[in-house]
Amino acid sequence: MTHASPPDSLWLGSAIRRIEADYQRSADTHLIPLPLPAFAAHGIDLYLKDESTHPTGSLKHRLARSLFLYALCNGWIDERTTVVEASSGSTAVSEAYFARLLGLPFIAVMPKSTSPEKIAQIAFYGGQCHFVDHAAEVYDEARTLAERAGGHYMDQFTYAERATDWRGNNNIAESMFQQMAHERHPVPAWIVVGAGTGGTSATIGRYVRYRCHDTQVCVADPEGSVFAAYHRTGDATLTAPGSRIEGIGRPRVEASFIPSLVDRMIEVPNTDSIAAMRALSALLGRKVGPSTGTNFIGMLALAGEIRAARRQGSILSLLCDAGERYLPSYHDAAWVANAFGDCSAAQQRVDALLAS
Predict the structure, then answer these.
(1) pLDDT of 170
(2) For the chain, how big is the Rg over CA atoms in Å?
(3) N or C: which end of the chain has fewer CB within 10 A?
């Protein structure tokens, strides 16, 4: 990391006020109840918090805001700083937005496989994209570019879990519980999230303990990710091939993934994520992204367990981003067949769960 000299106090104050003003212009994201009679009849309610409605279209808008404020208040960014990030797409889109808001240059280091739609959005906000062949190469390349430019490597994978105020301050966990207050089961039995940095599971895990809720946190981990094996073994030196579900899962253990804050890991095959993405898109009448499909598999698995145990409760997860970003890829049947093979068996399993 290259640290800037302490920023000019007038510029710093102006930068923070611009970010806070942008925040005040944004309404909170919606909580969507899922119409699933097979579970509702047994007293089990499922909800999605729709993070696609942020200005930059994903859950990562919250993270980018927190990372910029954290870097500003630590004196790591001034009015001349080039901001560099290692990102597979959504975080880079959101950071490019905030960099433009502050008038700062921005470079995103990402795998060549990143969706063209996300690349175009980064460019729309004035950011540059720097490509590497493999996901594992983004870290060192981003660090090197930041040093070469005399800039700041934002490093979401290290700072995601500490940049957000987990006690409240309208973080995602506090918002979830406020919106659930008048539902049939206002304190969720489970909150299901994916893990890219691990920052969201850390924030929610800390918040539920701080507020003494009985809610448990589950991470739905896509095929090829290292997090489930790390949670099982505690071995931080483990590596994995890497996830093919864009935005979640990692090939290495990230500093922001805190396993003690996660009560349960559910490993999700790629074909199940795709099938659940399609089923949920049909259920909602709008397209969702593949990581939301991964989350939905986790929700259905837990709902099935609650029903089998003859218990009741609510399960809450995230609609991470809109499916329009993935029209030429995950929502294209030919692309999916080439990338993942036949998903028909997985589709039948998901459809059976929804209809049972």
Answers:
(1) 65
(2) 20
(3) C
